[in-house]
Amino acid sequence: MLLLRLSPLFPFNVLNYALSLSRVSLRTYVAASFIGMLPGTALYVYLGSLAPAAAEIASASQRGGAPRIALYAAGLVATVAVVVIGTRAKRALNVELQRGC
């Protein structure tokens, strides 16, 4: 359940209908959905927060522009790295689970 929520390949609407037909308990569904949606939500929130920051950076009237740009760039790189590492871990876990079956 958690791995399905982490995967960006499955649309949430289709996944919700499919899981309603399974024997997943409500508690498991809610907990796994909450944890599995956090990385994507964090990425979207961070990218959304960059829009006003990009406007500030574009204006020449801001003081201390270079450190601020570096901080935003580092945050973006860290967020993307976490998403990539999570995706690779999910793939590795799927491979190991398939070997065990």
Topology readout:
Blueprint lengths: L1 H5 L5 H9 L5 H33 L6 H36 L1
Written overview of the protein:
The protein has 101 residues and is an all-alpha fold. It has one domain. It is 82% helix and 0% strand. It contains four helices and no strands. α3 packs antiparallel against α4. The longest helix has 36 residues. The mean pLDDT is 81.
Which labels suit this protein?
single chain, 101 residues, mainly alpha, 4 helices
The share of residues in helices is: over 70%
Q: Which stretches of 5+ consecutive residues score pLDDT under 50?
A: none
Q: What would the average pLDDT be, to the nearest integer?
A: 81
By secondary-structure content and strand pairing, the structural class works out as: mainly alpha
Query: Using DSSP, what is the number of strands?
Result: 0
Cα gyration radius (Å): 18 Å
